[in-house]
């Protein structure tokens, strides 16, 4: 059993291992409950340590050791000291120069409900080793700085036996590229394969294979297409080619995360591979494209160059997210992509950074590394790369990346290595920039303006954020893209990138005839909170005239947020001006339909709660829900005569295509339908539901009907139509949990929790129902606290089987301190109840401990 207080691991304690590993031979004799793994590992001394002699210390968890030997000599029971975290062989039995370790262990894939290590999903064997799952397969130096060559032999009945690298013969694999154990993978089962081919720009022919369960072969076209586009894009934009003759993807139904970049053998949550027009929405297609690219891009940013230790996780994740965002932008629309990325950042990372789970992009300590696959490491990590690129310029960025690949290929690196290539190529000192990796919290940038006699002074300040996280922090380097507008909408000065690298800085602009309207932080050039007091006329002016699409959207959103906050605080407001400006944009045929759809989508209830917090008010989730509904209705009325036409005009004719243009038109069409439904008693939504020939429209119509309380028939029909399609059934659970009106939601999710198809051990299904409910603020935060109790019950139940997914989902309580005292008491009662669970995992224990601290 684990010790009562699990140890904290610290970056400052990093030490190289006493031994390196050259080669690993693994043999698997597969059996559902008793798989035997035999390993033969060649170790040699780490000359840099010079502080021996060393015991042999190997990581291992839940392993049954059957046999071990060193250099062919069997080790007796008392020569191998096993404990809960691994084993040790005393130094005097370990040839210090180098030796061959052999051992056989037995493991139980079927009993592995945590989905880390080797486990079974629907009768198929698969692995998940990042971050520390390999130690559940065999004893090893399970740390990313130990890179070795792997040979793998799999014995089993299954017709498909896969591992990393090149296939030697059935069940036998060799990976020529040294890799850390977290990139190891094995898959075995009755799988079908969909095959294609790609020729790299230097002429290497690569076989591309996607493995799926029988019956899913026709759902891989889009993933395959996205893979080929990703491979080409990485060649064109980063000069990176694929480096094996085979690239495989496997779709797995039970998976804790999205997907995993194992060398040559990516393993995917099936929801991020499988799609047909009838079963997947436009959003699903977009996610598939992004994640296929993300995992493929890891081949260079993550695999060829990996992380020295897990504190450096953002080295591969931030960079790879940045790369997949740019890829998606190139495939679709950069301005829409930017807005969506910022929406995600604000929805997930800003709250994380403002609450008890806040940590730097490069954390300095952890208890359980699985808890650090966060929005901060991923999304803020990507923003930091974007700022770096902006600061050094596009060409220098590319040159620095080239140098990074050249200098560090085959190595396990740190953020220092990454920063250094930029310093070497640009000649800039990036010491201060590095604070973005070291300091947590979201900087708040506030603004003062002064205009006299043709001189415009703009003063920018960076301050502690509202949560106080940034008190005593050093000033960071904040690039603020800035535009200047005249009253006629023209720009008297060129756009500039102002660098705020002190607590306060004043920028002076001469020769202006009038005070300009300033457009700050264009393109969201830094992940900060901009505290720029503007009156509604100024906002409206930017909403109508800003040439920067991001700031145009941002201005509209700012107006909506102000209105919604006032409404949620019970003030009578008239949204007519705003609705009128929205109408102009919604009907502007010169604008991208996707952008227009984003404009018509009001800020989420959570975003409204955050904004109220910034204004010093305590959010009331029910009042926010009502306010949002009321403003939607105001907008709908203002657009009443346009909506039916817009809805009809945006219809996409011909066979369904998931491309950006068609998806953008559907998005606008469905945004119009959402508004129209508030006026026509859902008549058009009913028609669309019963007549839809694609999931995007069917699902959007279902959502509208459920949120209006008119979904009963459609819910039944949807179930009957899709009960055999697991991924569609996930949607059925999620949409009811997330959009049922707050008064009814708890009863609905309780009943669904008893449904025969609620297979709660499947992470996708669990997240759909429990996560769907917990991310609907007015339902989850119901005043009597029964929403909290319901979620806590399920988290306690899941923790016993799957700590990783449970701990992640505890994040739904991360914003608890923003609510009123009564709710805070109700929540902390539930958090304490979870904390008292006798068998609580280290994963969940760490998160709950922080939430309560
Ligand atoms: N490395 C994976 C990715 O971001 C995420 C992951 C982490 C998957 C841990 C599984 C377990 O692409
Ligand atoms: Zn990743």
Automatic annotation (TrEMBL):
Q: Into which family does the record put it?
A: Belongs to the peptidase M1 family.
The Peptidase M1 alanyl aminopeptidase C-terminal domain is annotated at 537-852
Q: What class of enzyme is it?
A: hydrolase
NCBIfam families documented for this protein? pepN_proteo (TIGR02414)
- One MF term in the entry's GO annotations: aminopeptidase activity
Q: What is this protein called?
A: Aminopeptidase N
On whether Amino-acid biosynthesis is a keyword of this UniProt record, the answer is no
Please state every residue range assigned to the domain named Peptidase M1 alanyl aminopeptidase Ig-like fold.
441-532
Q: Which reaction does it catalyse?
A: Release of an N-terminal amino acid, Xaa-|-Yaa- from a peptide, amide or arylamide. Xaa is preferably Ala, but may be most amino acids including Pro (slow action). When a terminal hydrophobic residue is followed by a prolyl residue, the two may be released as an intact Xaa-Pro dipeptide
Which cofactor is recorded for it? Zn(2+)
Q: Which CDD domains match?
A: M1_APN
**Gene3D superfamilies per UniProt:** 2.60.40.1840, 3.30.2010.30, Neutral Protease Domain 2, Peptidase M1, alanyl aminopeptidase, C-terminal domain, tricorn interacting facor f3 domain
Zinc as a keyword of this entry, yes or no, is: yes
Which Pfam families does this chain map to? DUF3458, DUF3458_C, Peptidase_M1, Peptidase_M1_N
Q: Which Enzyme Commission number(s) are listed? A: 3.4.11.2
Which residues does the UniProt record annotate as the domain Aminopeptidase N-like N-terminal?
Answer: 25-174
Q: Name the keywords, alphabetized.
A: Aminopeptidase, Hydrolase, Metal-binding, Metalloprotease, Protease, Zinc
Q: Enumerate the spans annotated as Peptidase M1 membrane alanine aminopeptidase domain.
A: 222-433
Recorded source organism is Amylibacter marinus
């Amino acid at each position: 059993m684990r010790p009562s207080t699990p140890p904290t691991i610290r970056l400052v304690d990093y030490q190289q291992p006493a031994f390196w590993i050259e080669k690993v031979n693994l043999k698997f004799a597969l059996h559902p409950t008793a798989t035997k793994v035999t390993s033969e590992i060649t170790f040699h001394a780490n000359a840099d340590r010079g502080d021996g002699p060393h015991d042999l210390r190997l990581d291992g968890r839940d392993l049954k050791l059957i046999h071990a030997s060193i250099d062919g000599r069997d080790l007796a029971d008392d020569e191998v000291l096993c404990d809960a975290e691994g084993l040790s062989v005393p130094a005097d039995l370990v040839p210090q120069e180098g030796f061959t370790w052999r051992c056989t262990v037995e493991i139980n894939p079927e009993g592995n409900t945590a989905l880390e290590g080797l486990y079974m999903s629907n009768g198929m064997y698969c692995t998940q080793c990042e971050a520390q799952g390999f130690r559940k397969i065999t004893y090893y130096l399970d740390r990313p700085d130990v890179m070795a060559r792997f040979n793998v032999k799999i014995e089993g009945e299954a017709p498909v036996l896969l591992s990393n690298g090149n296939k030697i013969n059935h069940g036998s694999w060799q990976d020529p590229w040294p890799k850390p154990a977290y990139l190891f993978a094995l898959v075995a089962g009755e799988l079908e394969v969909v095959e294609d081919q790609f020729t790299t720009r230097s002429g290497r022919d690569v076989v591309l294979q996607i493995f799926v369960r029988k019956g899913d072969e026709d759902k891989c076209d889009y993933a395959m297409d996205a893979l080929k586009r990703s491979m080409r894009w990485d060649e064109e934009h980063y000069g990176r080619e694929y480096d094996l003759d085979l690239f495989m993807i496997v779709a797995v139904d039970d998976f804790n995360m999205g997907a995993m970049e194992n060398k040559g053998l990516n393993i995917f949550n099936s929801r991020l591979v499988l799609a047909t027009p009838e079963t997947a929405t436009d959003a699903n297609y977009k996610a598939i494209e992004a994640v296929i690219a993300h995992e493929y891009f890891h081949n260079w940013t993550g695999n060829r160059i990996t992380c020295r230790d897990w504190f450096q996780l953002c080295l591969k994740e931030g960079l790879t997210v940045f790369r997949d965002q740019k890829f998606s932008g190139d495939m679709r629309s950069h301005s829409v992509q930017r807005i969506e990325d910022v929406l995600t950042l604000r929805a997930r990372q800003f709250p994380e950074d403002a609450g008890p789970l806040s940590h730097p992009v490069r954390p300095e300590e952890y208890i359980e590394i699985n808890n650090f696959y966060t929005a901060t490491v991923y999304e803020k990590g990507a923003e930091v790369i974007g700022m770096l690129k902006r600061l050094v310029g596009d060409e220098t960025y590319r040159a620095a990346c080239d140098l990074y690949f050249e200098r560090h290929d085959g190595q396990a690196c740190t953020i220092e290595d990454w920063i250094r290539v930029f310093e070497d190529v640009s000649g800039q000192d990036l010491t201060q920039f590095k604070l973005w990796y070291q300091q947590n919290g979201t900087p708040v940038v506030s603004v003062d303006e002064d205009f006299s006699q043709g001189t415009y002074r703009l003063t920018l300040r960076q301050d502690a954020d509202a949560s106080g996280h940034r008190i005593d922090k050093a000033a960071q380097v904040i690039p603020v893209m800035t535009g200047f507008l005249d009253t006629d909408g023209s720009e008297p000065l060129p756009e500039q990138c102002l660098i705020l690298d002190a607590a306060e800085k004043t920028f002076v602009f001469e020769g202006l005839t009038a005070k300009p309207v300033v457009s700050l932080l264009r393109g969201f050039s830094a992940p900060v909170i901009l505290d720029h007091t503007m009156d509604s006329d100024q906002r409206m002016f930017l909403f109508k005239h800003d040439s920067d699409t991001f700031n145009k959207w941002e201005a509209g959103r700012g107006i909506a947020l102000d209105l919604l906050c006032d409404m949620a605080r019970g003030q009578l407001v008239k949204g007519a001006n705003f609705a009128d400006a929205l109408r102009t944009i919604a009907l502007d045929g010169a604008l991208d339909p996707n952008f227009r759809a984003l404009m018509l989508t009001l800020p989420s209830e959570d975003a409204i709660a955050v904004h109220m917090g910034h204004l010093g008010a305590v959010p009331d989730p029910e009042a926010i829900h009502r306010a949002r509904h009321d403003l939607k209705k105001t907008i709908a009325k203002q657009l009443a005569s346009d909506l039916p036409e817009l809805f009809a005009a945006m219809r996409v004719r011909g066979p369904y295509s998931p491309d950006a243009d068609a998806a953008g038109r559907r998005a606008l069409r469905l945004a119009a339908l959402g508004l129209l439904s508030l006026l026509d008693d859902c008549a058009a939504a009913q028609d669309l539901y019963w007549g839809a020939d694609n999931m995007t429209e069917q699902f959007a119509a279902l959502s509208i009907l459920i949120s209006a309380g008119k979904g009963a028939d459609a819910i039944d029909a949807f179930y009957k139509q899709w009960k055999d399609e697991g991924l569609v059934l996930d949607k059925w659970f999620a949409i009811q949990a997330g959009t049922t009106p707050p008064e009814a939601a708890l009863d609905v999710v309780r009943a669904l929790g008893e449904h025969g198809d609620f297979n709660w051990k499947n992470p996708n299904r669990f997240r759909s129902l429990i996560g769907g409910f917990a991310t609907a603020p007015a339902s989850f935060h119901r005043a009597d606290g029964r929403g909290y109790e319901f979620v806590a019950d399920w988290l306690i139940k899941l923790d016993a089987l799957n700590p990783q997914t449970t701990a992640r989902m505890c994040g739904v309580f991360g914003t608890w301190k923003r609510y009123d005292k009564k709710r805070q008491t109700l929540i902390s009662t539930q958090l304490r109840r979870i904390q008292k669970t006798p068998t609580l995992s280290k994963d969940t224990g760490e998160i709950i401990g922080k939430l309560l601290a």
